[in-house]
């Protein structure tokens, strides 16, 4: 894991290099379901799975621009209607210096392309296609545009990041996570 606070936030623990100490709650993850919903605490119920997903998430982010990471996570969270992750990642983006204008435009980026670089637009289009893969697959033109802006290694990391945020969204939704209850510190 990297030491970027957007990579893995911890609760009274530290992260360095590829090792962690203590309980890790990365960006976009779910801990206590909270709110008296009777849903499981995913991290406690399936700790090996949780740790594997934490590792996948951290590996996916390696080498990617932190602003791009947040844009991808925000867009997927919009599409998946995951208020918990959307709240978390918009806050993370603000802390990383992202402008309010750009944050407001992510959901309508196609109509506000001038707010985003061509590379960011390609990543957002790929995020939408992969997130909605059951609707139409990943169209060749969307993939080709992303491949034109990212080398193979970067594209692999972008795809992995899209997969991880979609997984975290589903964990948050399945366990009834409540927006604004991010337990990362």
Alpha-carbon Rg, integer: 16 Å
- For the report, how would you describe the main beta sheet? 2 strands, antiparallel
Counted by DSSP, the helix tally is 9
Structural class: mainly alpha
Low-pLDDT runs: 1-35
The overall average pLDDT, rounded, is 84
Walk me through the topology.
Elements: E1 9-10, E2 14-16, E3 19-21, E4 24-25, H1 42-45, H2 47-61, H3 66-79, H4 83-95, H5 100-105, H6 118-131, H7 133-136, H8 140-149, H9 152-174
Antiparallel strand pairs: 1-4, 2-3
Short structural description:
The chain has 185 residues and is mainly α.
Describe this structure in words.
The protein is 56% helix and 5% strand. By secondary structure, it is mainly alpha-helical. The strands form two sheets. It has a two-stranded antiparallel ribbon with strand order 1-4. Strands 2-3 form a two-stranded antiparallel sheet. The two termini are 17 Å apart. A hairpin with a 2-residue loop joins strand 2 and strand 3 (19-21).
Properties at a glance:
mainly alpha, disordered N terminus, 9 helices, 4 strands, two-stranded antiparallel sheet, 185 residues, globular
